[in-house]
Amino acid sequence: MVKRSKRYTQTLEKINENSEFSANDAVSMVKERATAKFDESIELHLKTSADSRQADQLIRGVVVLPHGIGKTPVVAVFVEGEATTIANEAGADFVGGDDLIKKVETGWTEFDVSIATSDMMARVSRLGKVLGRKGLMPNPKTGTVVSTDGLSKAIESAKMGRVEYKLDKNSIIHVVIGKASFETQQLEDNFKTLMNSIIKARPSGIKGEFIKSGYLTSTMGPSFPLEVAEFSQDKTEE
Q1: How far is residue 230's CA from residue 235's CA, in Å, rounded to a whole number?
Q2: pLDDT at residue number 161
Q3: Short-list 152, 160, 161, 163, CA closest to 77
Q4: Distances (CA, A) of 226 to 25, 27, 170, 191, 216
Q5: Is the pLDDT of residue 112 over 70?
Q6: Same domain, yes or no, for 56 and 116?
Q7: Are 161 and 65 in contact (CB under 8 A)?
Q8: Strands, DSSP E only, in 5-54?
Q9: What's the mean pLDDT when you consider all of the chain?
Q10: C-alpha dihedral (103, 109, 111, 112), degrees to nearest 10
Q11: Which pLDDT does position 234 carry in this prediction?
């Protein structure tokens, strides 16, 4: 059995485990109970009815949260030629071509997002073993493989609070929506924006209930079950 801290146990005793909460109520309670000595992340976990073994039911997307997630991502960009200047001017943290590829091949991955121009992908693809397992590989589906014309916008988006979500092998989506230090309204705004994006990404092959269960939690705090009936397209887009 997992041993829980006294602080965690006392917090859990105040929660009715049979209750489900609206998103707004859950945000307030998670924020109130995030009492660790550091700024805890607020996380959303959704169990879906998608079958992760079916290629047409894989869920993956990117959304820019209106208030970010509490940190500015470190962005690495694989480019060469005139695109190098564009990347630097747009605020990329690491910019390079073959030199940056060689550095990553040694195992260096001190960045949160990697972006590549289309003409670089033939060379960047050999980094799959290093970047793939960390979820850092540039991918057209997440807007991280772009043309030179779209490079500046991609970098700015990554810096503004861009988050990626995807289905894991257990058909669950895990996403950070902010920090405990955020205002309640900021967390609610981020939650709504994220849920709108996930619902729109629903695969057409899924019939019936899409979101089976949902939980909102902080890094060191208890989880709060969400009212999944609230997660309909009509409700989130109001």
Answers
A1: 6
A2: 80
A3: 152
A4: 9, 10, 19, 12, 7
A5: yes
A6: no
A7: yes
A8: 41-48
A9: 89
A10: 140
A11: 46
